[in-house]
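Record format v2
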Amino acid sequence: MTDRYDDARDLVRRAYQTDSEQVGFDTEPGLAEVLVRAASPDSEGVFSSGGHLGDPPSMELLERTLDGLRENADVRSTPAPREPTASVKIVVAGDSGVGKTALIGSISEIVPITTTEARTTGTRAGHDGLSATPDEVTTVTMDFGRLSLRSDVLLYLLSTPDPFRFWAVWEDAVQHAIGAIVLVDTRRLADAFPAVDFLESRQLPFIVVINRFDGILHHRIEDVRAALAVDDSVPLVACDVRNQESTRQALITLVEHAMGTQQIPIHTG
Amino acid sequence: MSPLRERSAPSGGDFDDFASFYRATAAQTLRAACRMTRGDHHLAHDVTQDAYVAMLRCWPARQGISLDDNRRYVMGIMSNKVIDWYRRRYNRNVEFDDEFDCAVEETGLTEVVDELSVLGAVRNLIDGQPARRRAVAVLFFLQGWGHKEVAVTLGMSESTVRTHVERLRNLLKPFIDQIHEIDRGGERP
């Protein structure tokens, strides 16, 4: 069946089919950008919030976040929280295959959104020292999770991509974050150096979380601190990132640390 | 150990997760945005990404809805962001495109000699329209939407959409005749 607009539609479609200026579009970086924007408190002007490398987070906001994380009643039997009135972002940094996806997945209320790429197609395939980890696919861009706290705060969790390929994304990811977790695998500690260096240079409060792969802590925490050369004031904790309670405790440690630091942000660039 | 919040899981279907939806639709949305922004790729990229951010925020309510419906929904968000951008930029209080025909760039129809020229002139014609009518052109003629869908998406009355469509069709009519002539192998006098 035809209608009176068919001719015009055909013409317009032909006009644009012959348009030589085609749009190049790389989907995975595009998706990563959407996740970064979505986790930014000011992305839609919906929430009043703060964070480092922007306005410092208010102590009141950090306290609400901490209260929400500490609350541990069975939410299945309680009403859903009211509409969030503020949002905060925590960045999960670390090298590929260290467990960032699992950490976010263990606590996010939504199925985490993950941009992935098969390792065999990655540029670091074969020379990234990942033989010690069993994953078939590693996250090369980022993960996005969300947690509605009953203190009316929406907590976004955003993991960072491979630093050697996506430094620009790191810069965007830490904007307005209240803090970061550096997740480490003690079998390849040196891979954590870029994340530690980056966060120290941005003066973003962070803690180091040692992923207890298979429930085993292979090194003493103080040995890890010495190897990473992080300041004594930076908390180091061990965590089973697959376990929600373990992840929750790590987040609580980070927020407490952020409250204790309240550093003055340094604007770069 | 009690969970902090109960996880909302996908309800089934290939595009229930946001990442799959984005991968399946973003390129098309971006192309439409480029049409609406007259080839301004930076603006098109920006409004497209913002549209998906908005979509992500309401995804718990949208997942489980058909891919086509969600595609139209995000296209609508993007279209309105384009219109808002032009409205802010030009700070117009009067919606010219609802009431008046704006000046259309000289398309050089009399000098058109071949198909590519005609089709290029059609693009120029649409690019020369005000933002709202351009959005109608892209959604109605290029995406093939109906009057009602366009009206709901762009927040216009259906009669306003019909007016835009008719004006566009009248503007396109000489080009339709011309392209038919070329398709038939005829030559211009």
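Chain B is about 65% helix and 0% strand.
The CA atoms of residues 40 and 56 of chain B lie 24 Å apart.
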